[in-house]
Amino acid sequence: MDTSEIVVGLDIGTTKVAAVVGEVDSDGTTIMGVGNVPCKGLRKGVVSNIDWTVKSIAEAVQAAQSMAGVEIRTVYASVGGSHVRSQNSDGVVAVSGGEVTSADVERVLEGARAVAMDSDRQILHVLPREYLVDNQDGIRDPVGMSGVRLGAKVNLTTAATSCVQNVVRCAERVGLTVADVVLAPLASAEAVLSEDEKEIGVVVIDIGGGTTDILIYVDGGVAHTSVIPAGGNNVTNDISMGLRTPMAEAERLKRNHGCALGRMVSDEEEVEVPGVGGHGPRKVARRVLSDIIEPRIEEIFAFARHRMEEIGLLEQISAGAVLTGGASLMEGMPEFAEEILGMPVRLGFPVGVKGISQLVQGPQYATGVGLVRHGAAMLRAAQDRHGAGLARVAPRAPEVEPAKVADKAGNRFWNWLKVAF
Ligand SMILES: Nc1ncnc2c1ncn2[C@@H]1O[C@H](COP(=O)(O)OP(=O)(O)OP(=O)(O)O)[C@@H](O)[C@H]1O
Ligand SMILES: [Mg+2]
After folding, report:
1. Which residues of 48-85 are buried (b: 16+ CB within 10 A; e: fewer)?
2. Which end of the chain lies in a sparser environment, N or C, as judged by fewer CB atoms within 10 Å?
3. 275 occurs within a structural domain
4. What is the pLDDT of residues 270-310, one digit of tens each?
5. Which atom of ligand 1 lies at the shortest distance from residue 325's CA?
6. Longest alpha-carbon distance in the chain
7. Each residue of 115-166: pLDDT tens digit?
8. CA of 324 to the centre of ligand 2 (A)
9. pTM for the full model?
10. Residues whose CB falls within 8 Å of the CB of residue 328, separated by 6 or more in sequence, listed in order
11. What was the pLDDT predicted at 393?
């Protein structure tokens, strides 16, 4: 990479908007600035109030650009919510000339996109799982191989078009161009997983405020993604109701004293719980707090396990689970997850970036950092494949219309780039 380029990740979550600014050059990605602002404009991962979301995006971007000392114009934005679905698909094409070219790969992936889909949905990602050349399967990169027939097995992620459009609209209202819209847990996975884990089989469980996202890698490729419509906000709600305390106090109690696993808390510990409606504060055993939290967290992990069993992938997740998202910070989360999932569990901290990376060290920044790494990878791919200087790479217009098979050369180029991620 001859020049450097600014890449900005915009994680629009149910509780916060995080803008992460990275500088990408041949040495890697350097974090230059971060803006993190609470956001009330989403419900369960989906924009429900444009004005509030726009306001939070504007504030987060403003904070990030003053820290980084750059002007932000283009962003890679996240999308989430239970409208997101994944399905497997495949395609096959004849190889012209006896040797697989990148144009053949592009054609076979275009073919794999051609699935029946409701008109109000669009394809977000075409994620190759493996290629087949003639009778040989399990191929990662078929370009240059000899053969007459090229097949591809892919995972298609689809989303409700209106939900994607609303994310793009909010960013545009702030004067930003959206270079790409990326599924939030896919970005999180990019930030926290190693290639080995993806190869051996791993599940990322991103427990945010409104949703818990699941993304499974098997044999190096994405095999499944789905969303559970519950997260840390449900825990706060339970505490507020169970201890009859205001939501803000319930949130504080959860963050400062919460524990996912009741038996990790000693019986002597006490916490002070402020009352509502003129009632004064009272002392409550910390165990009572964890007894409220535990069933909700159990429900989330049990649901995740059930989903993995249902799709028949539980046995293939040999590297275990990696927890990201703010709610994974609670004491006892990895221990409890190990018990319920029956696999090794670790917390996922963003890796693979330099600079002021301590500012984005928490698992709640996995999506933001992953968006930057995704953008950096797209720029590198563009340069590698076309020998183009970064400055000449124009951002691709986001796919806000239901997916169509692109017929223009330019569109094909960007679709081709997109399928690699
Ligand atoms: N130290 C902590 N202990 C427990 N919970 C925490 C802690 N820090 C943050 N959380 C919880 O994490 C949640 C927010 O996580 P995150 O920032 O990943 O969500 P989000 O991206 O805004 O939402 P989503 O991904 O669901 O759209 C909130 O419910 C918050 O209470
Ligand atoms: Mg999130």
Report:
1. eeeeebbbbbbbbbebbbebbeeebebbbbbbbbbbbb
2. N
3. yes
4. 999 998 888 889 999 999 999 999 999 999 999 999 999 99
5. 18
6. 81
7. 999 999 999 999 999 999 998 999 999 999 999 999 999 999 999 999 999 9
8. 9
9. 0.90
10. 205, 206, 207, 334, 347, 348, 363
11. 36
Ligand 1 proximal residues by C-beta, below 6 Å? 13-16, 45, 80, 208-211, 231-233, 236, 251, 254-255, 258, 325-327, 329-330, 364
- Rounded CA-CA distance 411/399 in Å is 10
Which backbone phi and psi does 89 adopt, to 5 degrees? Answer: -150, 165
Rounded Cα gap, residues 171 and 242, in angstroms: 38
* Cβ-Cβ contacts under 8 Å for 301 (sequence gap 6 or more): 205, 336, 337, 340, 341
By the 10 Å C-beta count (0-12 exposed, 13-18 middle, 19+ buried), 349 is classed as middle
CATH at residue 132: 3.30.1490.110
| Backbone angles phi and psi of 82, in degrees to 5 | -80, 0
Model confidence pLDDT, tens digit, residues 362-414: 999 999 999 999 999 998 888 776 664 443 333 444 444 333 323 333 333 34
Structural domain of residue 237, as residue ranges? 232-291
> Per the domain annotation, does 124 fall within a domain?
yes
Nearest to 77 by CA among 142, 166, 147, 6: 166
CA of 349 to the centre of ligand 1 (A): 14
